[in-house]
Amino acid sequence: MMGPSHALSGAAVWLAGSWALDHFAGYGQSPLAIAVGTAVCAGSTLLPDIDLSGRVTANRGGATVARTFGVVSLFLAEVVEKVSLAVYRATRTRRDPQREYGHRTLTHTLPFTGLLAWGTTALCAEYGKWAVIGVLFFTFGLALRGLLDEWAERAGWLVVTALSAAAAGVAFALLPAGRGYPMLGLAVGVGCLVHLVGDMLTSSGVPLLWPIPTGRRMWRMIGVPDAAAIRVGGRGERLLRVAFLVVCLAAAAAMFSAPIHQALDRVASLPASR
Questions:
Q1: How many CB atoms sit inside 10 A of residue 202's CB?
Q2: In the predicted model, what is the mean pLDDT of residues 50-59?
Q3: Is residue 186 part of a domain?
Q4: Contact at 8 Å (CB) between 120 and 188?
Q5: Cα dihedral sign, 227-231-235-236
Q6: Which three-class secondary structure string do you get for 190-226?
Q7: Neighbours of 253 (CB within 10 A)
Q8: What is the per-residue pLDDT for 234?
Q9: How many domains does the chain contain in total?
Q10: How far is C-alpha 112 from the chain's CA centre?
Q11: Using alpha carbons only, what angle is made at residue 242 by residues 166 and 108, rounded to the nearest 5 degrees?
Q12: Contact status, residue 156 vs residue 59, Cβ threshold 8 Å
């Protein structure tokens, strides 16, 4: 799936999950907390593709996540791709095919997803303010790049970087102080997991169970049959985007319609000024 589809799916899952927690478990969140969690989850759905780099010196190519912060993110993607390829070659069996690139290997596994979620939570708990701002900055930038892909492409990475920094600072200033924000780690983990599910709907699949060997292979790609697979950028993916958008709007309306009506009722009940 393409970057915008991944980001929109992350937003849909987080909003729907927030509504379900509120409706069935009574776990309510402030509008700001929901907005921050949605942005972090949407941005994090792009993270597994950090293993797809482009031409760093020319600042071109690569996945959506690699283009978010210009040559800096492209260089990071180049490093991750090389590390992923090295891990693949070190752990593959003779049944696994030879590879010359690391895309859809290490960062597309459950251990990577779990480690990133745990690491985000531990980082924020240990280092507090600056770690939280760093996580918000990075994931907000990815969310902008994914959800507003065409606009971000025209605006350029410098604008996206500046807006991400400003949004991270404002969000942190408005969030309650003195917390480790474990929901940030959860949002990052959910976003990565949603990405894996999305890639499983394509013909390429993902090595979901690594490092558990399946048969005689260590890196078995798991996905739907080719006949049911979604073509990247095709009609099926466009239809999924519409479905994700509908879920986002329905969940947001379900969570915020009652508070908005209550606020309007309070305003209407105020005595008229003379």
A1: 20
A2: 79
A3: yes
A4: yes
A5: positive
A6: HHHHHHHHHHHCCCCCECCCCCCCECCECCCCECCCH
A7: 13
A8: 81
A9: 1
A10: 14
A11: 65
A12: no
DSSP letter assigned to residue 121:
H
Q: What is the distance between the alpha carbons of residues 103 and 120, in angstroms, rounded to a whole number?
A: 23
- CB of 223 closer than 8 Å to CB of 79: no
Amino acid at position 187, single letter: A
Tokens (6 digits) for 36: 């921050």
Intra-chain end-to-end CA distance of the chain, in Å: 59
Q: Which domain holds residue 262?
A: 3-269
Encode pLDDT of 167-213 as tens digits.
998 888 887 765 557 788 999 999 999 999 999 988 888 998 899 98
- Rounded Cα distance, 180 and 176, in Å: 10
DSSP H helices, the chain, are 3-25, 31-44, 64-67, 71-91, 110-127, 129-147, 149-155, 157-174, 182-200, 235-269
Residue with the bigger pLDDT between 270 and 121: it is: 121
Q: How far apart are CA 72 and CA 84, in angstroms?
A: 18
Let me know if residue 94 belongs to a domain: yes
DSSP state for residue 49 in the 8-state scheme: G
Closest Cα to residue 108, out of 216, 186, 222? 222
Q: What percent of the chain has pLDDT over 70?
A: 91
239 Cβ contact partners less than 8 Å away, ≥ 6 residues apart: none
Q: Is residue 256 part of a domain?
A: yes
In a domain, 274, yes or no: no
- Taking CA atoms, 170 is separated from 137, 182, 260, in Å, by 11, 19, 23
Tokens matching residue 45: 């759905």
Q: What span, in angstroms and rounded, lies between the C-alpha atoms of 259 and 251? A: 14
Lookup: tokens for 145 = 């790049």
What CA–CA distance (Å, rounded) separates 155 from 172?
Answer: 25
CA angle 68–250–186, rounded 5-degree value? 50
Structure tokens at 34: 């929901």
d(C-alpha 197, C-alpha 138), whole Å: 22
